User: Which sequence fits this backbone?
């Protein structure tokens, strides 16, 4: 990835009141635009009696973005929500801010502030986790080499996804993309120059904990 992106740790729903209007923010981590729209439609059905269901999402490393004012004055709802997501460097996230009108007009400036505040409240409640790019690969070795390789892997910032013990040992590993070549070269040297490493998945989204360690799912 060309820049650091974050996503939300968990799905949350938070509510606030602004001059008798109720604003409900629902926010969720998604992996693509289809998931984003499915989530948005679920919330719109859940709150089908609301005055407005404003939404925004960002996916594809910040490239794919979309928003809707859903009947609010143009530019007073969807864009402010999207701007909060952009300002927080969020990716793979969808948010719906539902409004139940309380009878008092907020004006354009008031709407921008209220929708922005509701979205920010949702982001803060959901928490943020850093995204990174990973690669999943498979390594095959004999039992004689397994101990040495396992000792090496235990000291690396990786995830061992699976180990199979048959006639040989097969290890499935997830590693940060930018560390893969170094790990691969080290393993080849341990295997006396034999390159029996098979890449299974590239461009995999992974997460980074507060200590910089790789995670599959935010904790």
Assistant:
């Amino acid at each position: 990835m060309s820049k650091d992106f974050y996503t939300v740790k968990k799905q949350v729903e938070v509510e606030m009141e602004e001059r008798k209007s109720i604003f409900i923010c629902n926010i969720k981590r998604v992996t693509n635009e289809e998931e984003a729209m499915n989530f948005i439609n679920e919330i719109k059905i859940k709150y089908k009696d609301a005055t407005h269901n404003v939404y925004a999402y960002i996916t594809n490393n910040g490239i794919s973005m979309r928003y809707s004012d859903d009947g609010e004055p143009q530019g007073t709802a969807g864009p402010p929500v999207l701007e909060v997501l952009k300002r927080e460097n969020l990716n793979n996230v969808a948010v719906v801010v539902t409004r139940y009108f309380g009878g008092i007009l907020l004006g354009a400036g008031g709407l921008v502030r209220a929708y922005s505040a509701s979205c920010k409240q949702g982001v803060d409640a959901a928490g943020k986790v850093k995204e990174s790019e990973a690669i999943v690969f498979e390594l095959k070795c004999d039992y004689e080499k397994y101990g040495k390789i396992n000792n090496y892997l235990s000291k690396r910032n990786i995830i061992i996804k699976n180990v199979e013990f048959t006639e040989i040992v097969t290890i499935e590993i997830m590693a940060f993309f930018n560390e893969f070549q170094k790990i691969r070269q080290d393993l080849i040297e341990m295997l006396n120059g034999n390159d029996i490493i098979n890449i299974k998945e590239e461009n995999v989204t992974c997460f980074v904990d507060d200590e910089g360690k790789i995670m599959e799912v935010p904790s």
About this structure: The two ends are 22 Å apart (CA to CA). Residues 107-126 form the longest helix (20 residues).
